[in-house]
Amino acid sequence: MGKAKVNWNVQTAEEHKLETIVENYKRFLTNQGYRYQTISLYSGRVGKFIEYSRPNEPCTKKADDYRDLLLDQGASKSHVNNTVFALKKYFEMKNIDWSTKILTRNDSLPYYFDENDVLNIFSVCSNIKHLAMLKTLFYGCLRSGELSKLEDNDLDLDKRTIRLRETKGGRDDIALLNDECVETLRIYLNIRPKIEVEGKYPLFFTDNFNLWDRGDIHRMFMGYKKKAGIKKPGAVHVFSRHSPATIMVAKGCDIRIIKELLRHKDIRTTLRYAHVANETKRKMYEEYLVL
């Protein structure tokens, strides 16, 4: 029998006020056509900002201070910028003008896990559901938000494809899978019951019969990364996006094909991922620069 997901705690007045503000903000973003993942991300950032502002009302001065605090704490540029975008929308909802500097992204090479790292992560995972999730992430080059939204009818094992709904940029797409991933999914599906959750039939659901979210997937992955003894920096996005791109480039895959597999709109985004290992540069140099 599944566990009931019930919060028995009584809300304080401040907690109720925060929840009301966040719910109004979510409706505001929904009416503007924002996707579920963006709404979830932005509302979380706004909620933390409001908590930071207590006991005072959130204001643009507090927003400036909060941005500076994030920078002082060493938050990444993307984290700071996403927080700024979320707060801009919050103030727009309140009809308040607020402008601040957007940090420019640097072109430093992204972290990645090599083939041995990926295989080690797979090898320490004895949970067939988690292994199916990890292989679907990696071989499908999926974002964690895309994995969490997969439903049973999105998967076509015969064609070895997965249909992705409302991916980054709001468009639907198709991801490819290889034979190894398909075989693991078959084993998983032979064991897994078909469960309806929130009116959907998710491909993956938690042991409590809830939908997975990005935080759940992050914690699951980091547990196996630690178990595999991998000390390199990087979490799910590094595992499922940076690493497949890097491995494919190292094996000589055309960058234009990688762009399509990663479902990038702009080839410049792919080029940032697709840094090449020094030994691969040497091998290609000696193979092609011959008189």
Automatic annotation (TrEMBL):
<protein>
    <submittedName>
        <fullName>Site-specific integrase/recombinase</fullName>
    </submittedName>
</protein>
<dbReference type="InterPro" id="IPR013762">
    <property type="entry name" value="Integrase-like_cat_sf"/>
</dbReference>
<dbReference type="Pfam" id="PF00589">
    <property type="entry name" value="Phage_integrase"/>
</dbReference>
<dbReference type="GO" id="GO:0015074">
    <property type="term" value="P:DNA integration"/>
</dbReference>
<dbReference type="GO" id="GO:0006310">
    <property type="term" value="P:DNA recombination"/>
</dbReference>
<dbReference type="GO" id="GO:0003677">
    <property type="term" value="F:DNA binding"/>
</dbReference>
<dbReference type="InterPro" id="IPR011010">
    <property type="entry name" value="DNA_brk_join_enz"/>
</dbReference>
<dbReference type="InterPro" id="IPR050090">
    <property type="entry name" value="Tyrosine_recombinase_XerCD"/>
</dbReference>
<comment type="similarity">
    <text>Belongs to the 'phage' integrase family.</text>
</comment>
<keyword id="KW-0238">DNA-binding</keyword>
<keyword id="KW-0233">DNA recombination</keyword>
<feature type="domain" description="Tyr recombinase">
    <location>
        <begin position="108"/>
        <end position="286"/>
    </location>
</feature>
<dbReference type="InterPro" id="IPR002104">
    <property type="entry name" value="Integrase_catalytic"/>
</dbReference>
<dbReference type="InterPro" id="IPR010998">
    <property type="entry name" value="Integrase_recombinase_N"/>
</dbReference>
